[in-house]
Design a protein that fits this description.
It holds the Pfam family TetR_N. By secondary structure, the protein is mainly alpha-helical. The protein has 2 domains: 3-71, Homeodomain-like (Arc Repressor Mutant, subunit A), CATH 1.10.10.60; 84-216, Orthogonal Bundle (Tetracycline Repressor, domain 2), CATH 1.10.357.10. It has 11 helices and no strands. Helix 2 crosses helix 3, helix 5 (67-83) runs parallel beside helix 9 (136-163) and helix 6 packs parallel to helix 9 (136-163). The protein is elongated.
Amino acid sequence: MSQSDSFRELLLLDVSNEVKYSEKQLKILEAAIETFSEKGYAATSTSEIAKRAGVAEGTIFRHYHTKKELLIAIVSPLMTKLVGPHMAKDFAKNIFEVEYKSFKDFIRNLALNRYEFVKKHSLVVRILLQEISLHDELKEPYMKLFQDHIYEKFKNKIIEFQDKGEVVPLPPDTIIRLIITTIVGTLVSMFVLLPEKQWDYELEMNSTIQLLVNGLIVK
């Protein structure tokens, strides 16, 4: 599936959005994704987006009053799928409410789940990761939904492995931080910082999983 098809799928999954997108509007959104991901939000002008979309600049402003509104229109479907309450609950159920044979199986399931999602929607994820620290509108929903639907289940799963004597007795919050920063760091490196590099994705993810397992299991 192409990035364009993936984005259209995200729009269809944004169930809170009752807007019917015209083909011209979809072209604007797709052109904005490509330009924002290449140059960054701040360095992109609406005239560049209009040129790539094959529309007049005024057409963009008929649909989106500001460039910020256009950014939110791109990222909001991703937010719905990635951290909307329903999706967050499903993610927590599929990752943290599963019985695993080992801590390695848990880490593999978590890491590959996020890898597959990011790979499928890499352009939109790249925009989100580039801009999330700069716009509270993008950051706050993630923080709230992580705290409401994921954090406690994540913590309980770590404690479960510690109680079995499988994971080192560090504070669970520390272990969660190490897991998140390692997995996210790998994904950011591959899809944001060095997307043009010919990555062996399977090798990189397996190396990341092995690094976490080797660092966190009891020897």
